[in-house]
Amino acid sequence: MHSKEYALIVAGGKGTRIKSKLPKQFLELSGKPILLHTLEAFYRYSQNITVVLVLPEDDFALWADICRKNNFTKPIILQKGGETRFQSVKNGLEKIEGPGLVAIHDGVRPLVSEDIIGASFRLAAVHQSAVAAVRLKESIRMTDQDNTKAVDRSRFRLIQTPQTFSVDLIKQAYQLKEDPAMTDDASVVEKLGHIVSLFEGSYANIKITTAEDLIVAEALLKKS
User: Fold this and answer.
1) What is the pLDDT of residue 151?
2) Are residues 198 and 162 in contact, defined by beta-carbon separation less than 8 angstroms?
3) CA distances from 45 to 15, 38, 73, 121, 217 (A)
4) Bond before 162 cis per omega within 30 degrees
């Protein structure tokens, strides 16, 4: 018997670093908003997935307008975000009832593939957690005020989303007190005492944060 699958899409960006008045998740990428690309990726993976979209309440009307203009009629469960990502995810989890698996994903990672989404659910079904990650391509150094030191990059990973967990585990983790050191869902679950399982993500699964990222995403979409 397969576990029920959920996607919790967090889209609370303000567009500050991309120097846009429009929140970055609503900027156009190849003719439609970034956020629609992200949501469509999850529906390509499965038409039966239950999607919870977490947005700032001030953006609800804008989202409704985007859906109308783009004829987007998928059954999204909308939830208002909080002041921080931690609070937004916690709010989103409130919309999930019963057991299952939930993939938590950045709304501005529009190039996530069906293969990666599927792998995250399959591995989380076994290990209770499955976090996408990629190896570092470049050398890194550790630094303080006075010195720098070369570090073995093979021991490090760049963490992406989706970060997929059993619903029971992630809900329990988000009962913890918020801590600035918990920068993503994996760190929240780790704080609870659970060992986090990683799997191979993709260098194409970029998070759109700067104007340069938009250019790269456009190029990758044209190539696909």
Assistant:
1) 94
2) no
3) 28, 11, 17, 11, 20
4) yes
Q: How far apart are CA 10 and CA 220, in angstroms?
A: 22
Domains of the chain: 5-223 (3.90.550.10)
Q: Containing H/E element for 141?
A: strand 140-143
The tokens for 35 are: 């956020």
Tokens of 223: 């190539």
- The burial of 5, by beta-carbon neighbours within 10 Å (0-12 exposed, 13-18 middle, 19 or more buried), is given as buried
Q: Which 3 state secondary structure label does DSSP give 96? A: coil
Q: Which amino acid is at 23?
A: P
- Element spanning 173, H or E: helix 167-173
**What does DSSP assign to residue 197?**
P
Residue pair 101/164 in contact by the 8 Å Cβ criterion: yes
The residue ranges of the chain whose pLDDT is under 50 are none
